[in-house]
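Example S7 (structure tokens).
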């Protein structure tokens, strides 16, 4: 593998981690502790474009940047307290979601149906991880966690999915991961 082939995925993973951080600053307060941000949009785009390995690495970089104190999480927050707090499950879900999206979309030869299945599966993993932690941290039932941590976001996330699918289709020809 050439040096260029080794460096390009690292640059792309870093870029998508930075875009996810920027997406955290585009924030609308949601019901309860979970805000509406563009992070999910960038997680979806990351998985679709970078694939499972580099998509997950990108989200690991994003989470690690927040853990070491850079204010990259929603609301400019950072630190282990965010990861252990009510919304920390979503952050872990970003890693899992990007991996699942990349795995399904890239193993299915990038067809539209596979991409939609990949994104829905990845979003499910993000939601699942998020609601489990919401439930545990807030001492509420899983259904109550779904009501405050999933239902208010479905319409917004459908819009993000549509936009990510369109954009990913356009930039996959530019961003080529060896």
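Recovered sequence:
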């Amino acid at each position: 593998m050439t040096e260029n082939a080794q460096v390009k995925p690292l640059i792309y993973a870093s870029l998508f981690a930075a875009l996810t951080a920027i997406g955290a600053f585009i924030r609308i307060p949601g019901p309860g502790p979970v805000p509406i941000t563009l992070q999910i949009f960038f997680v979806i785009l990351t998985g679709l474009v970078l694939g499972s390995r580099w998509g997950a690495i990108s989200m690991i970089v994003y989470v690690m940047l927040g853990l070491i104190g850079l204010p990259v999480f929603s609301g400019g927050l950072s630190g282990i307290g965010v990861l252990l707090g009510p919304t920390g499950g979503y952050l872990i879900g970003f890693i899992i979601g990007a991996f699942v999206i990349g795995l399904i979309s890239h193993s299915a030869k990038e067809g539209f149906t596979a991409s939609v299945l990949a994104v829905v599966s990845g979003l499910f993993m993000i939601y699942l991880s998020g609601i489990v932690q919401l439930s545990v941290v807030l001492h509420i039932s899983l259904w109550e966690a779904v009501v405050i941590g999933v239902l208010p976001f479905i319409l917004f996330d459908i819009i993000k999915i549509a936009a990510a699918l369109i954009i990913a289709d356009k930039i996959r020809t530019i961003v080529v991961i060896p």
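Notes on this example. The longest strand covers residues 27-28.
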